[in-house]
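Treating backbone geometry as a discrete language has practical consequences that deserve illustration. No coordinates are needed to read the tokens, only the vocabulary itself. For completeness, the protein is quoted in full, as a sequence line and a line of structure tokens:
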Amino acid sequence: MSFKTPDLCDAFEGELGKTVRVVAPMFKSYGARAAFSGRIVTLKLFEDNALVRTTFGEDGKGKVLVIDGGGSMRCALVGDLLAVMAQKNGWEGVIVYGCIRDSAEINTIDIGVRALDTHPQRSIKRGTGERDLAVTFGGVRFNPGEFLYADEDGVLVSSQALI
């Protein structure tokens, strides 16, 4: 399933801002998969990645995890061990509104990763946070069950499948 986000923007130009939303260009690209897409699963948490581990432990075929980490730059929410777990369980990719760590290792794993930056410190693990609720960052609302498309040019969210 090949796509380019600029082509999707052109094809759905009349739907931009409605059905198709473009995320502000704020993420750095990691992982060996440059482009990825899938149905959105959301987490809202702050400096606690226990829910990330639980979620990546589930079947992720055809899914993208969107983590609203509050934009924290004080610790990492995803590291190489979680990225390997996600890849083994079929996750297409992850968007982290926060930081990751072990970026060199993550860049060798067949998964798409977008994050604000890297940070060497791990997060706490209290199990706090929420799952499957609408989250908003980058000027876009991410609703569970909607579709996300990410490539070298950006990130799109759509209420319907585009490809």
Observations:
- The chain is about 15% helix and 35% strand.
